Structure formats: structure tokens, C-alpha cells
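Ticket opened by: R.M.
Priority: normal
Category: complex prediction / small molecule

The reporter submitted a protein together with S-adenosylmethionine and asked that the result be attached to this ticket for the collaborator who will pick it up next week. Submitted input follows.
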Amino acid sequence: MPKGGYGIHSPFVFDLYTGVIACNKNEKVFESIEAYRKEMLGCDIGIIRKSVAESLNGGFRGELVKLSRIARTVSVPPHLGRLLYRLVNHFQPHVMLELGTSVGISSMYIAQANPKGTLYTIEGDEAVFGIAQKRFQEMNLANIKSICGTFETELPHLAKEVSSFDFVFIDGDHNGTKLLQYFDVILPKLNSNSIVVVDDIRWSEDMEEAWREMKANKQVSISIDLFRCGVLFFRQGIAKQHFMLRYGPF
Ligand SMILES: C[S@@+](CC[C@H](N)C(=O)[O-])C[C@H]1O[C@@H](n2cnc3c(N)ncnc32)[C@H](O)[C@@H]1O
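Result attached by the on-call engineer:
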């Protein structure tokens, strides 16, 4: 893995790595997002979560979970939130999509990186959806459009409505087969400037396999493996290349 960008032979990826990925500049907005995470981490309130997989299978067995546990185990860590922020801030995508809102931490990083763009974020669990939506309103994050429902039903509807997906963050089902199904719906709406970030590509063997298939897709020109997550680019006119780069936590 290159240190400080040495050994990266693509000018686009070299600039991206040195100026965006490995840049550790602090932004004022990070403070309010991390203050919200801190509040959630200290929150002993329990909510009844319904597993989306169970709901899809017709079962609705709820599980009592403390908000502190959700914030600790489910939300993106600060360094990944900052990476999402920097990618969005650098490329200024118009239509952004997130699969998996949870309590809204990654949505806050993405939305605040480009207030002129619109972030559509889909969440199947009503309890966490409500918590995130309330906080988005309190923080005046008017460019977030929250959608409550399953990716299976909501994503195809949304794909018909929007002109394109310019930035996509997939952080929902940790299931390789499902991941490829969502990717199939998203693919026709991508353009040569689109970026797709997939979290937890090493979560399981099927997630790793799905990541391999995604990066092999003929529409993908550049894929960057940051170990925890993967980033895909669809730029035309450049040779297909794969990179494995060192990244955080910073
Ligand atoms: C890892 S969490 C998202 C964390 C969030 N991106 C963050 O970093 O703050 C994944 C979320 O996706 C939701 N989810 C999983 N599968 C889903 C599906 N098929 N449809 C809708 N929501 C789903 C879960 O309810 C969960 O809240």
C-alpha cells in the first residue's frame, strides 16, 4: 500500500488520495455531528427495533435496543464520516443516495458537505427513522429527504423519479446477494461523474464476493479498496484500474 501517495500511477487517484482521502482537515460541522453521537452514546433510552429482514419475511418480532448501542455499533465511525464529507465536498454531487440512515450520523456528514445537493436516505426501521428525521429538522438539514421503507420497495421507485445518482453510500443490509441487487437498480442511473461508496466490504465472504463483482462491472473504471469500505468511479476514457490504499482511522 502506498504511503503518502507514492506509487500511485494514476494522476486522478494520486490527487484524490493526497487531497481528499488522506487529508485530515477538521471542519466546524464535524463538531455538531460528533456532539450528537456523544449524546446518543450516553442515551439509555430503549427503542423497539424491527429487523428489516424479519419484516420482509412477514414477521414483526421487535427487539428492545438502547440508542447508545446503536450509536456505538451501527453508525459510521468519525474517520469514515469525515471521508464521506470530504468526497462529497470535493465532487459536489447533486443527487445523493444513502441506503441505511439509522440514527442519521452518516447522513449528516454527507448532507452538510454539499448543502446545494439533495440527499435521499432510505431506512426500513421506523423507530430509528423517526429519531433521525427529528434531528435533521432540528439541525435545519433541509437538503435531506428521508424515506421510510425497505430498499427493496423504495429504491426502484426513487430510481424512476431522479435524473441520476451522483453519489451513493450503501450501508444497509450486510448481505452480498442483496448488495448486488441494489447495485443493479442503481447502475442505470449512474453517470461518468458518479461515485459509489460501499461500507463493510469485508463483513463476510458474500460481501467480499459482491465487492469483487461490483468492481469488475464494465461500467466501473476505478475502484479503490480502503479495506473497510470500497469506492467506485465510473469515469469514461481511462483504463480500468484497481487500487488498495491505506486509510485511517486518523
Ligand atoms: C449500518 S446501519 C446504517 C448506519 C448509518 N449509515 C450511519 O452510519 O449512521 C444500517 C441500517 O439499514 C437498515 N436496513 C437494513 N436493511 C434494510 C432494508 N432492506 N431496507 C431498509 N432498511 C434497511 C437498518 O434498519 C439499519 O438501520
